[in-house]
UniProtKB/TrEMBL annotation:
Protein name: Signal peptide-containing protein
Domain of life: Bacteria
Transmembrane segments: 64-84, 96-119, 148-169
Keyword Membrane part of the UniProt annotation: yes
UniProt KW keywords: Membrane, Transmembrane, Transmembrane helix
Amino acid sequence: MKKIMLFPILIAFACAVAGFYGALHNQISYTVSPSYFHDFKFDQFLIEPDLRNRLGASIVGWGASWWMGFLIGLPIYIMGLFVRGAGRFVKAFIKVASVVVVTTLFVGVTALGVSFLTVTEEMLPGWMQYFSVYDPVAFARAGTMHNFSYIGGIVGLFAGVAVMSREIFISKKHSISSK
């Protein structure tokens, strides 16, 4: 019963972690390409003109990612119900949330690094044809990081499922050995 009562708290935690991740992620993206925000994201998220700066980029990041906490947190929560003991369950959930965030960041930053090696004025991604921007190379690099971070979230979910499976196994093994 305790685990069920933890549902809103843990899902809110997952949403907050995802939102903060998005805000941090966008600080990196804004450093790479302010144009990505000024020419695209600020309009997309209806950011007021006086907030079209790093604070606005954080607001965009929060808005673009908090909901991923729900999408990723829900299956992890459901799996976690099989972890024995409420305290161990909470620790496992927080551990898995950390694995998801680190994996997502790794994939996004790796994509950004690769984009610095591959995206040039002559070699822009096909999706750039829809944008007329001041600095298309920087815009494409920030966009690449953005797109791959969603992929990183999915990869992070799979990594999280693996870690939660291990936590379930360990909790059952520990429960059996302590009898």
